[in-house]
Every structure is written in structure tokens, then in C-alpha cells.
Design a protein that fits this description.
Elements: E1 2-6, E2 16-19, E3 30-38, H1 41-48, H2 55-58, E4 66-67, E5 71-79, E6 91-95, E7 109-112, E8 117-119, H3 126-146, E9 154-158, H4 163-174, E10 179-184, H5 189-194, E11 199-202, E12 213-218, H6 225-231, E13 232-240, H7 253-266, E14 269-272, H8 279-290, E15 298-303, H9 307-314, E16 322-326
Parallel strand pairs: 9-10, 9-12, 10-11, 12-13, 13-14, 15-16
Antiparallel strand pairs: 1-2, 1-4, 3-5, 3-7, 3-16, 5-6, 6-8
Helix pairs in contact: 3-4, 3-8
Bound molecules: NADP nicotinamide-adenine-dinucleotide phosphate.
Amino acid sequence: MRALTFANYTDPRGLSWRELPMPVPGPGQVLVRVGAASVNPVDWHIYRGDPWVLRLKTRSKAGEPRGVGEDFAGIITEIGPGVSEYRVGERVFGTIPAAVQVAGAIADFVVAQPQWIARLPHSVPDQDGAAVALAGLTALQALRDAGAMRPGHRVLVWGGSGGVGHLAVQIAHLMGAGAVEAVCSSRNVDMMEELGADAVFDYTRGETPIGPYDLVIDTVCTASARTLRSMLRPGGTVVTIGALSGGRLLGPGGPIIRRALGAKVRGFKAKTIMTRVNHADLATLAEWMATGKLGVRIERDFPLAAAQDAYAVLEQGKVRGKLALVARVPKTGG
Ligand SMILES: NC(=O)c1ccc[n+]([C@@H]2O[C@H](COP(=O)([O-])OP(=O)(O)OC[C@H]3O[C@@H](n4cnc5c(N)ncnc54)[C@H](OP(=O)(O)O)[C@@H]3O)[C@@H](O)[C@H]2O)c1
């Protein structure tokens, strides 16, 4: 089977398709034929080895190719010993946890554990399942777990138009937020309103949210601790999911640590998140999509074989919603 790989840290042009042995699901694993995949910023952090601190976790044996990508959707083609919850032929979607990802999801086939997948409802296309997986888990866990969101809370999503942000706006409403507001650039204001944002602040026009907020979900980490303090209610929380800038050594970790220190000085709660891949939360996302309560916006589909082009676009940091990769499903029969 073919898989997108890299042998040395590289930019998207250095990613290459290789013929690899067909993977065999071991005990407690299933094999999925990939119908669609999607791209996430963590993927390029891994293949670029940027920031350097990440290389401690992602170092591969010299010259040994690593796979690329976490999110996938497709059909189960083989079941390993001891798996009783799935059958061959079922459609599933999911994501490979970044901490254990060596073989990637941008491939003809992916081996997965049942905890990393959930059934994909008939009405949901493969690309929507793939596109929602990591971003949806992150948005849900940022609101529910790190942010301890309660019905009636006033929530701000900073970076509202990206993969995580546009799902967080919708999920906050699904969880009963009293109001959901968003920060984005001019070209995305309409999309935020369509997704149900009660107020939108265009940072390219110098608009700053006022609040007071119970919870700020932040994917970009551009606001100072002082600014955040001024817009939070007493007891309010900021959950920082990612950061735009950061040095070569710590990357997004640098601004996130600085914010945590600033929050201590200014007296508000600052949390961060490491997304936990789990079946129950994926199943919740699937149910919301099947009932039309949650919709993933896909700015553009690429052929799976053109994943390098999708990464070149993703790395510019301006994607509206998500980018999806669609496999050409081989024809069967006559
Ligand atoms: N901690 C975790 O476990 C975890 C999990 C998933 C993701 N993350 C991190 O979370 C971050 C967001 O991920 P993502 O998938 O949502 O990324 P993404 O889809 O690439 O985000 C792109 C979006 O960022 C917005 N943006 C860019 N500059 C902005 C600014 N100055 N102010 C406000 N918005 C801005 C863009 O909107 P405009 O064009 O409107 O500016 C665009 O819609 C990344 O750093 C990622 O690594 C962390």
C-alpha cells in the first residue's frame, strides 16, 4: 500500500509517497481502508521537527520513514484478534493520537485501536468524519473539561474561523452557552455569524471583545494577560489551545507558558489542553453530525495523493474551517 512519509525533518515538498508492506491488524486493532483524511497543524509540527522540543518525542531511527497525518475515515477491511465491537464493512472515522503516531493516516490503509474510532453515520460523508476528528475532540474537551463550561455561560472563541474554532462556536451552543462570541478576520465574519456567533470581533479592524466572559477558548494566544483580565468575569477561565508564534525551541509552548505566568500575576485561571483521543467523545461528535446539530466547514477538498499541496495551504494559517483529503476509491466488479 502507499503512504505519505518523511525520513528527515522537512517542509511539505519533502514529503514523499512510498510503497509499504500491507499493514496487518494485531490483537485489539482494526484495519481501515482510508476513504478520506484531513490535515492538522500538529502534522506539520511533526514533519518539520518544529519546535525542536518536539523532536525528543518524534525522533525516528535514522533514515526510517515515518507516516504523516492523524485524521481518517473509511471502511473496516480486517479485524484483529480480540476485537468484538466492530465488523468488517463498517464505516468509521477517528484520529491517531499524536503521542503514538508513527504510521500515518495519509495512506491507503491505517491500523487503529477501537478507542481511536467511532461509527460514521450513513448521512455523514467520509471527508466530514475525517475533518471533524481531532479538531472536534479538541473543541469539545476544551469547553467541557478544561473550561468546565456550564449552561448559560458567556463564551468567547478567539480564532473562531479555524478548524478547532468553528467547531467550538457550534459545540458551545450545543452545550447550552448563554452567548457565544468570536474573533476572526474580516473575510470570516459572515461564516461566524452563519455558525451562530452572537457577536463577532474583526481583529484586522482593531475590534477587541469586551465581555465579561465566563470562558475564553483561544487557538492563537495573541492577547496579553492584561487584556484577558479585563474581559473575564471574576472566576473566569482562559483555555489556550495553540499559539501562532513561538521560538524554534519551544514553539507554541513559549507564549502559552508566558500566559500562564501572566494569569498568576493578574489573578485569573489559565488552562491548556492535550487532546485525549477516545471513543465516547468521537461517538458524541458523530451523533451531533448525524442529527445536523454540528457541521464541519470544509474550505477545500484535495485528492489524497495531493496531500503535500494541502499542507502548503494549511501552513499559511488562514484556512476557513478544515481542509479534507479524498481518496480515489478503487472500482470493484465488472
Ligand atoms: N493542544 C492540543 O491538543 C491541540 C489540538 C488541536 C489543535 N491545537 C492547536 O490549536 C491551534 C489551532 O488549530 P486549528 O486546527 O484550529 O488551526 P487552523 O485551522 O490552521 O487555524 C486557522 C485559523 O486561524 C485563524 N487566525 C490566524 N491568525 C489569527 C489571529 N491573529 N487572530 C485570530 N485568528 C487567527 C485564521 O482565521 P483568520 O483568517 O480569520 O485570521 C484561520 O481561520 C494550532 O496551533 C494547533 O496546533 C492544539
